[in-house]
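Case study.
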Amino acid sequence: MSELTDLSVPELLAGMRRGDFSAVEVTRAFLRAIECLEPSLHTLITFTPELAVRMAEEADRRYRAWRHEGSSTEAALPPLLGIPIMIKDVLCLKGVPCTCGSRILQDFVPPYTATAVQRLLDAGVVVLGKTNTDEFAMGSSTENSAFGATRNPWNPEHVPGGSSGGSASAVAARMTPAALGSDTGGSIRQPAAYCGVTGIKPTYGRVSRYGLVAYGSSLDTVGVFARSAAETALFFSLMAGHDPLDSTSAREPVPPVSLPDTPNLNGLRIGVPEEYFISGMSAEVEQAVRNAIAQMEHLGATVQNVRLPHTGYALPVYYLIAPAEASANLARYDGVRFGYRAPAERLWEMFDRTRGNGFGAEVKRRIMLGTYALSAGYYDAYYAQAQKVRTLIRQDFLDAFQQVDVIACPVAPTPAFRIGEHTDDPLAMYLEDIFTLPANLAGIPGLAFPAGFSATGLPIGMQLMSAPFREEILFHTAHAYQQVTDWHTRRPPLTP
Amino acid sequence: MSLTLAEVEHIARLARLELSEEEKIRFREQLSAILDYAARLQEVDTRNISPTAWTVNVQAPLREDVPAQGLPTSEVLSNAPQVQDNQFRVPPVLEG
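After joint prediction, the assembly is written out as follows.
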């Protein structure tokens, strides 16, 4: 039998149902992988091995009771019973610290659980820990964490991407079968591409934001990473759906994702936007993505060019709107009700010092930028203009989806960059997000998955986007591609 | 465009952020560069374009007005830096 950590989620579920191995054995296999690799990768902020074993023991009790009753149907069992996951440390799990990678929340223990997390707990998952992130999810490399940088398992001298870099790195290194992330401007898709795993950024409103620590409220989405499109779809379908606790939560029904067994893309219309193949991007990335599109055409899809003419404005629009929303959302960290408080004689001094000491450089930079964009005299020129250009960016996509079912393009212009390469130049760091920001501005879903490797052995990702609430067609397309390719099954040199 | 040091200090005051002198100088340079980059938005003709604040139809959803249990006070206060008589305690606001 192969190592438990190599098995897919359906294989793990089947094995636990048959009694080939227990949920505790599965959890212990992943805990061993974490203990072995964590010192070199630093994927976790909070490791919860005792909690994980307790949850796995409970899963085993339910499997035993189910077998004892002689149940033949799987329906009586929660759909992910005994499957370990990790949770990005911006999503609340009651009783376990939620730091957001920030000193200001270093000791914060949430008194409630995020809806997305609760739905997976109800489905039977086991929690291994909370993953590292750029502070308040602001970053593209997971270097901006107050608790140290995460590394890429394909080459620890390189970043895993960000901000959900801890989750992506841990899934790639087989320290967990899946991990939750959040995506405000690319924070799931870009690390998925850099680490060679599959990650979904759902339609805005598709997965509840209740219990997600807010960054940019009109852009924030909760999603998930796994090793394949089929497994990612399984977790997504269990998290999605309306939640009365989030007033922006969508009421559209969530169809069960059923993926065909044969790789067939007949009738699928793929659009290729030339605006996403720019001068200066890596030739290897362009070649890998174009090869993948050709392969999809070979499976029956038709390919045509589409135009997204306002793409070039997405970066400045995003870096006005997201910081503006962040500057309002992060006003709550004032040292009064929770989190870090700096010692001070007077209240106003306490506010200023708490925030000055508690936040890291990138968070302060974005709060400053957002405060400026919203301030008297500059609001119309910056924030209001950005919101209008956002309308044009969204309209580009809605027009394109009149002609095609999915848009295929790169996730990022390069493979994972080196640790420290962009830390002194915020604009260069922001440019890593140029192909992922538009989906957040438009509110549409995007799926990232591996499509090749660079000559130096780093993963290359590709991205598929669709009209709102059509996640299923993204999973369907990527699943067909993964049935005829093996990029997603490759393992990094750093694995147990 | 280039921000002045006084403008950086003004924004920091609005945002209630204590910054070191070194941070002020660095943010002045970096924010000026980012705002320069953002200036390209001015070239887009947005006459007759309405702004997008949300990509979903945001209407305040209504529900039945049924009382529900909130968090107990002890849990609400459990993360507070300082508590007194079941309330959040802060440093004095006024001199005196």
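Observations recorded in class. Chain B is about 35% helix and 5% strand. Helices of chain B lie at 5-14, 21-38, 73-76. We will return to this complex in the next lecture.
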